[in-house]
Each structure stands twice: as C-alpha cells, then as structure tokens.
Hints:
315 residues; alpha/beta; 11 helices; 8 strands; globular
Amino acid sequence: MVSHPLGRRAALQILAGSAASGSTGGTALAAEAIAVPRSAGRERPSLIAPPGAADCHHHIYDHRFPADPAAGLHPGDATVADYRLLQRRLGTTRNVVVQPSTYGLDNSCMLAALAAFGKTARGIAVVHPDAPLAELRRMDAAGVRGIRFNLVQAGATTIDMVEPLSRRIHDLGWHVQIHMLGPRIVDAADMFRRLPTPIVFDHLARIPEPEGVNSPAFATLRALLDRGQVWVKLSGAYQDSRIGPPGYSDVSAIARAYVEAAPERLVWGSDWPHPTEKVKPDDAILFDLLADWAPEAATRTRILVKNPEILYGFS
Length: 315
C-alpha cells in the first residue's frame, strides 16, 4: 500500500493537483469525496488511474430483471448509475460487465447495462452449450467478448460445459472466464491445457491461504501461465485473504508473483458490488493495492490499459 506522512486527505489533494498540472501523466481528478453504494469509504485512491484505465470485473444488479430461481446470491440493486459513481471515484473509464450467477443463463441485465454504458464497456455472458450461433453473434455485436463459468457459487454452469463451449466460441475470438477454487483448478489442469481459447481466471485464481505461493494450486497456475494462453484477474483480494485490509499481505504476495511472471496477461477488476461480502470493502484501498503489486508505472499502465485493449478489444 502507498502511505503518505501528510495523511490520506492531504496526499489526495497533492496528487490531484499534480495530475491537473500534467506532472503525473494521470487523469486530473478533483479531491472531493464520493460516496458509492455498496462500497466503504468516500475518498479517492492515492493512485491516479492512467487514461483509458479499465475495471475488468464488476456486476450489475437490477430488480427489473428476474433472478434465476436456483441462484444462491441475491445482493440487491447495484445499477449502472451506481457504478458510474465508482468510475468517478476511481478514475477508470472502461469497464467489463460480468454476468453474475444471480441471473443464470438470462443475460438480459448484463446486455442492457452494455447498451447503457456504450462503446467503453464490454461484457462476459453465461450461456448453455446449445445456445444458437445467431444468439452468440448478437451478443458479440453488443460487446460480449467471453463466457463465464462460476464454479464456486451454485448456478447455471458446470465444469463439463467448459470444453464444448470453448470450442463453440473459438471462431468468435472470445475467451472463457473461470471462477474456481485453486485446488479444483489443479484437478482440471489437463482439461484447461486442451482448450483452444484463452482462459481468464477470476480473483487471483483463488489460491488457498496460508499456503499461498507455496501451494500446489499456485504451482499449477504458474505452469499454465507459462503456456501463454492463460490470463489472471487481479481482483477479489478479500476472497481468500486471512489477514485482510488494508494490505491483504498474504494474497498480495500471490499478486506480486503473477506480476513478476506474466505482466502482459494480467488485468485488474474491482469486483464491485462485492456480492459475496456482507461488510463491503473500500474500493479505493483495493485500487491502491496495485501500487504494491506493480510498483512500476509502466507495468500498471499495461495492466489497466494495454492488456484490456488486447483481451476485450477496447479501441
């Protein structure tokens, strides 16, 4: 984490003033606090987002769209308007809307959010292996660039769907996104090696603590990363941390190891509105973790701007 002897408020004002003068190369931001629904705190991050920075993992919930009866998570509304407040607070300008388990195979809420956000947004859908090609092409035109398999929360996907769907979406240029506990990734490693599409693992690939970088799960992820097909989302630091905020030092060691190994295949995500968390984290603290995980500004720009352009086709 970045610390400032003058205090967080004074540091934010200095950073904002530096950005306005062009000395940081970041986006000029006012220092006033912004309250965001389903996010703790109000202050902006100390880290200034570079122009074109992308939040590559968040969800939208809207009561106008019916939940899947089998869904286990019902976090309440977290709307497009709410998320735009988070963008103002963090300074990000691009975003990836991920279909949550709450809506099962009905992507209507996610697609409506893409339409509202416009060309600066991309989407990740959840689909059945029998989904018509015409439906997949319509979603592609709407900005969808991959399909998700949430194999942690009860939902509409199973591990048996991963390989056949990966082959179905290959010609669209999409990727598969996997939310799976690290030990289960070890068990499925042979299948992941067979997939023809890129693979994106959510939430630091859910490496278990306290073993962390010494676990078989991390060794498996490192071997998969070395093949050049696998990406990892630097998101959800709270999912497996036993130490917690503000530094999340146990999972931060995992994140730093990923940055050292494959900075060209990492993206960052807020995981807002943090549907698994009863006590919501401070999104400014989560964003500031990048200063510790990737100390070089050029590497952070790669993670926040250049890598999302490659993976999601942002222009």
